[in-house]
Amino acid sequence: MLININFLKLNKLIIIKFMTNKHYLLLIVITFLFGSAYPVQKLIFNENVPPILMGSLRMLIVFVCLIPFWRFKIPNKKYWLPLFFFSICMGFMANLFMTLSLKEAAIVSPIIIGSQLAIPFAILLSSFFLKEKVNFKKWILIFTSFVGVSILSFDPLIRNEIFALFLISFMAFFYASAQVFSRYLKELDVTLTNCIMGLCGFFFLFITSYIFEGNIINNLIKINFKSWLLILHSAIFVSIAAHMSMFYLYRIYPVNKVIPFYALFPIFGILQTMLIFNEMPTFIIILGGLIVITSIYLLNKLD
Hints:
Elements: H1 2-17, H2 21-46, H3 51-70, H4 80-104, H5 109-114, H6 118-129, H7 136-152, H8 162-182, H9 190-212, H10 216-222, H11 225-252, H12 255-258, H13 264-277, H14 283-302
Helix pairs in contact: 2-11, 2-13, 3-4, 3-9, 3-11, 4-8, 4-9, 6-8, 7-14
């Protein structure tokens, strides 16, 4: 019996240490889907779908799809406040600024690069609120990631995109804030947190759309079939399938084995943007992007 137990322990250690080929493939699919979020949403907005309404519809689909897994279980009261702030930051504010930045932008690649600031923002917020230590190497990488984004502003093509970069920086901040609040929700099932996040996101985005984008019924009627398919892709394949698959891998491997692959997401996103919109990144965009992506990759490796 002792031999069997030791074998199981050894087997578990091997699984944790060495990632299987199918999980490497799964990570590639996940990051490909994450990368598709930006060009897909830009395609939706090019069909004249109001951005905030689109965000609310995406959150509604997430909520409806996760209801069978949530089963209306009410969490302990001690989780209510962090769950509320997590839902507001992730479901409402991050979605709001992401959709507005993509609607504003004429070029998608810099927006994808700018979104990577979520990771250094998360480290800074964790240091301030959770008192997590940030060593000298991390400070250097945080600084270089912001420098990389700042370099983008020197590209003549980006001068008209500064406001869009400003908006995506807010998205990165609120996304990072949500990650900090999620630290207080570790004991809750991810389907519960994401389902409530979807409900809150839908509610607040729907109201915001009604206030700023006009008659919602008329806007809904104008959405064509192609746009509905793209919205479904954004909700089901990106917000649910990709995120849930990532959480699945977190349960099998240490976070530092999985999270460095996150650096593939902007690469896939930019490649898809090039294919869909025929965007050819300039030297400055490539330089800034490489600095940001390398900094983010090394930051993830240090965790």
